[in-house]
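Methods: holo model generation. Sequences were used as deposited, without trimming of termini or removal of tags, and paired with ligand SMILES retrieved from the corresponding compound records. Each pair was processed once, and we did not select among multiple samples. The sequence and zinc ion SMILES for this entry were:
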Amino acid sequence: MELLQYAPRRYRDETVYSMAARLVLHDISISMSRSSQNVFQNKNLQLDSALPSFLPLLAEKMQCSCDELLQQHSLFPYYSMFANKRARQRALSTLLRGDSSGAFKALGLLANRLADESHLKYCPMCANNQKFAYGETYWLRAHQLPLVSVCAEHKCKLIRVPRRRKHLLFPEHSKPIDYKFDAVAMKIADISRDLLNSSNFDNGKLLKGYAARLVGRRLATTKSINLSKWFTEMSEYFVSLKAKDERVSQLLSEQSEHGFPANVFYSGNSSHHPIKHVLIITFLFEHFGDFVVNYSNTSTIVDNQNLPELPKQSDIDKAKHNKVKQYLNQNLSLRQIVKRANASAATVRNIAKRQGVQLTSMKRQVDHTTERLITIKLMVGLPTERISLQLGVSISDVEQVLSGQPEIKFLRRRIRNYRKRQQSRDNLLVTIGDLKHLRVKEVKKKCYADYMWLYKNDNAWLFNTLRSHSFPVKI
Ligand SMILES: [Zn+2]
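and the model returned the structure below.
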């Protein structure tokens, strides 16, 4: 009898998280971590990461190419859209090697210090349709984009579900539908969805297009851009979004010197977070079509008009330095200055040192007994989230205690390293035990991330183990 093989279901625009969660759910095991181990050979995978590390394995399970997953089911096109070609390619190869945070770094997204989406989101009408058509619900890509709170198709509010790393989550059907939202939210949903489905942008052309529109909107003359007017008008335009989204209020805060929106004109070696571009496009253009036409006609616009001189990066840096100095004089803590001036901790420390100012610690929120308990728990390597839950304090209280203790940070790194080593060794041994053919290629294929970690950090053990299991390893 011929055995037919069916590829697992893959819905249009479904997220990779959704597919991975369904595979894990359908694996009958005693626990989620055991199922995750069975399906992905790793019980600690972060399934809901915006740029997940398990794409090669998932592609194998779904019987499709990695590229299909990346282009049609992941948020990679969105996050890489405004990056330069080299950064995009570096991020892509890093991601395909199973290194999620390396991919964020290559795209310059870590440097932007803008938080990731805290919730998974779904549209109640889409969920009802999915349940009716397929008997199950799944997560859609366009709904997971940052700042998006409305379904562009059904024009209703998305339902938000807090992410839970150790739980598999799916949209619920038959939930109430809410049509109350403002025009800006609808515009962001439309523009973000269209951006996700468009190709990459040439940065130079994009910026010239912004500049030309700024002239058209009288936010710039042919001589210069009126930064304060642009900032004020954008702040007013996004006033309700600022109240709902920490990232937008961080970018458009009155007290801060972020350099936004003008700082998009400077990319240096890193890219700007797509959120910044989405805010600018939403503010400057009527709709996505208006933006695309403007972008396509940029060369004509540039020929016909004298574009304003762009503000210099050194001016923005100078303004940032002045803000840091001002906050130092006001005796604000390091953390407060980092947040308000959008400067790195190292920059603030350097300026403080040059000015001969002693940085003050933030006022302690916890008493001495709790601080002692936090220190003990930090020393045994407990995650900060768990300590905050166990002791009923905020995560920033825990981080505050940790920030003054470099020895504990070092110790925790060693504990984490030791645990990771143990876990990778265990996973490798389990994989070897299940192999039919003793080939290094097979081990690598089945537990790539663990193999690579051991290769880099625990090389002697890895090769001794392979040799002791009679692998043909060259010396
Ligand atoms: Zn919908």
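The pocket of zinc ion is lined by residues 123, 125-126, 151, 153-154 (CB under 6 Å).
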